[in-house]
Amino acid sequence: xxxxxxxxxxxxxxxxxxxxxxxxxxxxxxxxxxxxxxxxxxxxxxxxxxxxxxxxxxxxxxxxxxxxxxxxxxxxxxxxxxxxxxxxxxxxxxxxxxxxxxxxxxxxxxxxxxxxxxxxxxxxxxxxxxxxxxxxxxxxxxxxxxxxxxxxxxxxxxxxxxxxxxxxxxxxxxxxxxxxxxxxxxxxxxxxxxxxxxxxxxxxxxxxxxxxxxxxxxxxxxxxxxxxxxxxxxxxxxxxxxxxxxxxxxxxxxxxxxxxxxxxxxxxxxxxxxxxxxxxxxxxxxxxxxxxxxxxxxxxxxxxxxxxxxxxxxxxxxxxxxxxxxxxxxxxxxxxxxxxxxxxxxxxxxxxxxxxxxxxxxxxxxxxxxxxxxxxxxxxxxxxxxxxxxxxx
Length: 393
Ligand code: LCS
Description:
CATH 3.90.1150.10, binds ligand LCS
């Protein structure tokens, strides 16, 4: 079914569908490593790119392809590449676009490993990096060097909830001939579509909102320009960071309800954020749906909904925050985010522990920061859980 001109919800359900010999209602799992050719000429033609068709699952597979088509349509890209994990996508992005002597600029508060992969591994291949507050376009402009090839941002950032004006930074990047990649994991394409705002590449940890059920890890890159899609796909295949067909099937199943899940989770997060901001034991809170959020206007302009992620500090700092995490009963004390279940975690000692204390400070990841990923349970139950946990601090 052709879904390109249909609405987002129709694409969620149907984009990438194909029919098989039995009329299967959903794309079947093609759990095969290789695909037989009818004859030697056909094999050679497929390798030469003269004939369409699958060759080997690391390079492509019908189930994975179906997911890739869906993701490309959801982000309005010309193509998508699925990866074994979000980090598979991040490492292939860096490897595809940066070479010895190049420089990249990143948001200071990226997901910890996205930043430390650059500062502790790619650095040794002669790639320089600067991590700046990308909400501040003057700071970004000042960080640009003649050899800057990539600006890589998260908006909102994990876990500091800093937004970057995607349209404005895309204009700045393109004026200087630099590519802009946006990790859209925290928002999902239901909330914002960076390619429409001018970005060149979108990255997702599919592990989060897109799959939504905390039962697989996966990643994706989606690009506007088909030449970039081909380059990124080639890198994925060299690195062997390909997704597995069963994983792809799970994501195809999970993403169909993205809009419903994100709407409910965002609605719950708004209630939880309002509850927390009025609580006497809460020292500070960052949530794009609160009028007190410093970038509230940008959130209104750029995001369809404020999303499910909240960060906050408890009065009494880290010891009090730890007690809260020990006291909650409904919220799961676990890393990851974007699933149907509510999660709570402590970035400084968990997801961002691999960064140096100095880098964390520069990124605004204070030791008292508690990260909350709101699920789709009843908001009243989530708030009652926080209430009993805060009462026992
Ligand atoms: N980008 C963002 C914004 C992320 O939050 C993560 C993982 C990744 C990329 C990497 O994706 P993965 O390889 O895990 O699929 N974020 C995690 C987090 O905040 N807690 O646990 C994982």
